[in-house]
Design goal:
Length: about 725
């Protein structure tokens, strides 16, 4: 290893971490693993395939620390460790993915592919800011081990950025750790990692508060330790008189959880009593686990008065992440409430290191729990139409909320977040059940959709094929799956209804032999008071808007547009003396090569230099210039042929003409900025006005640009069509 790529301090750190990792993995490593890994990493460092990232972090050391932390905080796993160590070498293309599969096996190659996907998304710096966030979570959901690796990777990163000079980077990493990785760690039962992530997130985003709480905890440690010893002493004496093998320890709660209590209770730290919890861990055989825990419970409650309302029995019904424990709160010395947690060594191991690492532990039926949760995550992500921040909020809500336990009439047990409704339960059982749910029977009594479930309820769901989801259902559902499915279905129903309404309008116009022009119908929609096109056509389908009224309004709008073509008489037209008005700037030749005529460019079609045009003698004494394809051209030619005058462009051009463009496409981040940027870069082109709207993800815009001729306009249209999200650009007629 050359110091060219590792500083002397980093070389020492690398070797120390490598030795520690070898010691941690000696029970799971296969013969020759160490030699092969050492050779490939050494060669990768020599050939500069471990380049520092933009924040100055060395990936060789970071990966080693991540693999070591995985072993220490969860459990040694050969494939996960090797995937972590080889990932950067695959990313830099030092090793091909096919070679990894050939040399190390398909499972390690699969893990590396997952990590590479995550890396690609992060390289776009859009993990939270855009829809890539959903893709990121879906990548996690493909293999639960990718989630675990990324959680540990983020923990190591959080440790390494303390006092990093790039404050924005530190804040962004800390924010994401708290809103994404800590909730995922919680769901997987990685409570120790979750607490570390939350504490460091608070430290990096609110260092003053973190430091103040840490200081006060340090100041009160001696008093707290003395109280814990006083509380534990009589319990230990009683337990010593039983056959139980046990250990008792006091645990101070995390700084982040204390900070949350301070906010909720609006109190100071001196008046918060539950700053710590007593944990009793029993060394028990699997068949005696529950009885041993309840024996300890009876001894403790004989000594101290329990608070029944604060008892949590996760022995009888474990949490969905596999957590098992018995939590009680008792009235201790000095009139203080103290939380006591009772569990076995097996339960404590799973609570400390997580369900994911120990789902094959003898006697633990947690594989199905994990599969159910992973399927739920996938379902949420694949159906969600909300933004990334809403996704994060929903996931965090589902993960952190307390749970209620309800039964089907057959006795099957289901867990849902606290506050879940009968409708949430229906969606939880099956999407179609939720879609057509009309109510239910709870404990033998009929209840409505919005009934809030309570633990112990027995629920039977009623359905009807005529029932369909409604937006007001969102007011009482709390699970992400239910919310996303309702939004998605209502949106699809609205689109289907609007399509039907549009078809009805088009058919009526066709029967009446009226040309349906988009520009005119958009004016009608606005005039009739509808905010969106979807709402307009939806009203037609629902028969709250009569198609005949639309036709009447459309024809009135069309007539108003052609009012400029009305003329008093030919005799009233006065040709202005060309000698008095001739200017060198004339760009139009009107009639028999006469210049200096008093003319105006018609606003109904906005002709520009290069268009085929004709002149029309108006009642105001001026000639109005229309494009040959003007919407009013046929009407004028048919009814007033004697008012037309031949007009053409001269060879001169010295001014800008107004042209109106209509743009339609999918709403995308930065679409308006990209459009205006293109226009601003065009020579002799200016943006005079812009009007935009976005509905159901569809972007519509009307632009008026100042431009010199049709060639420049056609070039501009071609460039605008290349903008991401833009589907069509047309010149308005």
């Amino acid at each position: 290893m050359e110091e060219k790529y590792l500083t002397p301090e980093e070389t020492t750190q690398f070797l120390t971490s490598f030795r520690r990792l070898l010691n941690l993995t000696k029970e799971v490593a296969q013969p020759h693993d160490t030699r092969r890994i050492k050779e490939i990493i050494t060669q990768g460092i020599k050939e500069n395939h471990y380049r520092r990232d933009r924040y100055g972090i060395n990936p060789a050391i970071h990966n080693l620390e991540t693999a070591t932390a995985l072993c220490e905080k969860i459990s040694p796993d050969r494939n996960m460790v090797i995937a972590i160590l080889l990932f950067n070498l695959c990313k830099s293309e030092f090793i091909e993915e096919e070679e990894v599969e050939k040399q190390w096996g398909a499972d390690i190659a699969k893990l590396i592919r997952g990590l590479l996907k995550v890396s690609t998304l992060y390289s776009k710096q859009a993990a939270v800011e855009s829809d890539n966030f959903r893709k990121l979570l879906l990548t996690f959901a493909e293999d639960i081990r990718v989630i675990i690796i990324m959680i540990v990777d983020r923990l190591v990163l959080m440790h390494s950025i303390n006092h990093h000079p790039n404050e924005k980077m530190v804040h962004d990493v800390a924010y994401e750790a708290n809103y994404l990785y800590a909730p995922l760690a919680h769901r997987l039962g990685l409570y120790a990692i979750k607490s570390e992530l939350e504490d460091m997130s608070l430290k990096y985003t609110n260092r003053e508060t973190y430091t103040e709480i840490a200081r006060k905890l340090k100041e009160t440690k001696k008093v707290r330790d003395a109280y814990i010893a006083e509380f534990i002493k009589p319990i230990k004496e009683k337990l010593d008189g039983t056959p139980l093998k046990f250990e008792i320890k006091g645990r101070t709660k995390s700084i982040y959880s204390i900070w949350n209590k301070l906010k909720k209770q609006k109190n100071d730290i001196e008046h918060i009593y539950d700053l710590f919890a007593i944990r009793i861990i029993i060394d028990s055989n699997p068949e005696n686990e529950k009885s041993d825990c309840w024996l300890a419970y009876s001894i403790i409650t004989d000594l101290y008065q329990p608070n029944p309302s604060r008892m949590k029995d996760w022995l009888s019904i474990p949490k969905s992440n596999g957590y098992e424990s018995l939590h009680i709160t008792v009235y201790g010395p000095g009139e203080r409430w103290v939380e006591v947690q009772i569990r076995t060594k097996r339960m404590d191991l799973i609570a400390e290191k997580g369900l994911a690492a120990h789902w094959k532990y003898k006697g633990v039926k947690s594989e199905s729990n994990l599969d159910a949760w992973m399927n739920n995550v996938r379902d949420i992500l694949e159906t969600a139409e909300t933004g990334p921040m809403e996704l994060m909020k929903n996931m965090k809500m589902d993960i952190y909320d307390k749970e209620v336990f309800v039964f089907t009439p057959k006795g099957d047990l289901y867990k849902l977040p606290f506050g879940a409704s009968l409708l949430d339960f229906a969606f939880h059982i099956h999407t179609n059940l939720g879609m057509h749910c009309t109510g239910g029977r709870v404990n033998g009594k009929n209840e409505r959709l919005n009934y809030k479930l309570k633990s112990g309820d027995t629920v039977e769901i009623y359905t009807s094929t005529s029932q369909m989801p409604k937006l007001d259902w969102l007011a009482f559902v709390v699970t992400s799956k239910a919310r996303n499915k309702i939004r998605q279905t209502v949106h699809e129903m609205a689109n289907r209804s609007a399509s039907l309404g549009k078809e009805l309008v088009e058919r009526r116009f066709k029967n009446r032999k009226i040309e349906l022009k988009e520009a005119t119908i958009m004016k009608v929609i606005k005039k009739m008071g509808y905010k969106t096109v979807t709402d307009f056509y939806d009203a037609v389908a629902a028969e709250t808007l009569d198609v005949n009224d639309i036709v009447t309004e459309y024809e009135a709008t069309e007539r108003k547009a052609t009012e400029t073509a009305e003329i008093r008489s030919a005799e009233e037209f006065q040709l202005i003396n060309p000698e008095e008005n001739e200017t060198s700037s004339d760009v139009l030749v009107i009639g028999d090569n006469i210049k200096g005529i008093n003319y105006k460019l018609s606003k109904c079609c906005n002709p520009i230099y290069g268009d085929d045009v004709f002149g029309f003698i108006s009642a105001e004494g001026v000639i109005k210039i229309h494009r040959a394809d003007c919407p009013n051209a046929n009407h004028i030619r048919e009814n007033y042929p004697y008012r037309l005058i031949t007009t053409r462009w001269s060879g001169k051009i010295g001014e800008q003409f107004g042209a109106t463009l209509r743009i339609i496409g999918h709403d995308d981040i930065g679409i308006v900025t990209n459009i205006t940027s293109i226009i601003s870069k065009e020579k002799e082109t200016t943006l005079r006005s812009i009007a935009i709207s976005s509905d159901d993800g569809i972007f519509q815009g009307t632009l008026v640009v100042g431009i010199k001729d049709t060639i420049a306009l056609n070039n501009l249209i071609k460039k605008l069509k290349t903008v991401k999200g833009v589907k069509d650009v047309q010149r308005s007629k």
